[in-house]
Amino acid sequence: MNKELLCLLVAGALALPLQAAEKIKVGFISTLSGPGGVLGSAIRDGFQLGLEHAGGKLGGLATELIVEDDQQKPDVAKQLADKLVKRDKVDIMTGIVFQNILQAVEPTVLGAETFYISPNTGPSDLAGAACNPYFFAVSWVSDSYSEASGKNVNDKGFKNVFVLAPNYPGGKDVVAGFKRYYKGGYAGEVYTKLGQLDYAVEISQMRAAKPDAVFFFLPGGMGVNFLKQWQQAGMGKDLPLFGTGWSFDQDTLAAVGEPTLGALNAAHWNLDLDNAANKQFVADFEKKYGRLPNEYASQGYDAALLIDAAVREVKGKIEDKAALRRALEAANFKSVRGAFKFNKNHFPIQNYYLRQVVKDAKGRYVNKTVATIFTDHPDAYVAACKM
Amino acid sequence: MTSLLILEQCLNGLQFGLMLFLLAAGLTLVFGIMDLINLAHGSLYMLGAYLVATLTQASGNFLLGAALGIAATAVIGMALEVLILRGLYQRDHLSQVLATFALILISNETTRTLWGVQPLQLNVPAWLSGSVELLPGLGYSAFRLAIIVVGLAVAALLYLVITRTRIGMLIRAGASNRPMATAMGTDIKRLFTAVFGAGAALCALAGAMLGPLLAVQVGMGENILILAFVTVVIGGIGSIRGAFVGALLVGVVDTFGRAFMPTLLRHALSPAFADAAGPSLAAISIYLLMVAVLFWKPRGLFPVGA
After folding, report:
1. Domain A144-267+352-381: which topology?
2. Crossing angle (nearest 10°) for helices B188-210 and B142-164
3. Over 90: is that where the pLDDT of B33 sits?
4. Chain A contacts of B231, Cβ < 8 Å?
């Protein structure tokens, strides 16, 4: 009995490396519960749809997707990353929503030379001096949306803008992106506490400062609060409001409804982008999940397609990391945003669009693409990347 | 222009204070009378907002949705008290904190399972969505005025109930000396259930009034719970009057800190330093207020049972 068991174990141990070559393990850490859970769930849903469209096999390899919830806590994410990298020995990781979470797991994942495909957060240091051969972002650099907004506000000829953002490094970064392309003056620049609930004070200040436009960056629930209060204060009628796509994603539009109507925002993707991949993505996402996809879902979907294309290109030989990197850099997939290519820092060179919130034929609030702000726009940090 | 702005900011402060009062009133009642640290107070607020949003969408009528949502939350609150919290009164505060913290996690995940992760839509009813011209050049959101009116009405009602009625007398007795109240034959069990139900109803009322201003989403209770606790501690635990004064103080100090602190600092200090320090100082102004109050009045402004 013992001998037989031993034989079985030895046979199993011998068989193991062969099996590993036939499948790919993807570790997916994301924020799936709590207030940030709405973002992580969208990325996961998008990624799973991408996996489904790849026939459940990324690049033809049997795929094991391990989904973990970081609860938006860096310490939890760090432990999960340790487990995925050291015990599960995943080949590729993806999924993280927030920058501070990514910073916590980055040493573990990139230190173990595991590829990380960011479906959302794109810290500027990783796009610049700290760029890494194992790090890819299918999304953007954190100030790209506000660069596009700044360019748009500048081109429209606004001269006296009021800026509102939360008082934390991410908020300052986003405003810095806005300022890089907006050259006019400022009626006011207010930084509020992170997680602030009530914006009556700031809205009163805006009214008193008499700006000709308002640019705001308030991610998540803060943006929902602000937009509701903005409309109730009757501000929308004569003061144009500009924001980043994060404040006007499809889930926010569904939650806030009417107060968002007419608002202008910048993003790299939209529901109505006219390409075959996007049409299929939007239709299948709605069919599968019963709601319209947002940017986050599109990024999750693209992450899955990117991995699929790269694994296919190396014919499943994912142990050859140099070849896999070259295949990822080539990015031979049909992105839902249209044309897609990586810059040398592994961040996308892509278009950014101006979108406006409108009511569609079914009475839903959706973004309509109004104009292209940037064509093939690289980020501002690529020059510092020595890769 | 400037005086109009100051007047508007006063209104904002008053309104923010009354918003906090709706939450703090229930919290201080439960905390002071039942000696129960209920961290799950914020969860009842979230539950109230979710129920009001759902029922408003289903019925198409904000008032009806709010009324049904408040009633349902009160019933759920009483059930919670009878089934779970009743066993905690004899335990120390640490056990209560642990158990009610568990309730936060459970209710957050239950809400997520039932309603999904996407925030719910709850907007101001059309008849309250405009703005009212109070003075020439000073328009103010009708819904925020409604919050001021409801907040003042709740304060007046609570004042009347607590000072003029028999149940109010029992509540005061329970708050200042519980063993003695029990010894005098008060049915403390029923009183506690009723008080907890009233606290839950106030939470749901806050959820109905704040839902149209704030995001109705999982975890919305925790953000505002901290402010409610600050209010209760400043006012004196268990005192409705304290909660009222504390809430107004917090509302006004927070509003004025945010509105004028950066500008004032710019006059006194170098602009670069003022720009960096202003928002941070404004953000902690209410905590400075709390420290100051506790330094001179360690039991809050209106201590109960002193």
Report:
1. Rossmann fold (3.40.50)
2. 170
3. no
4. none
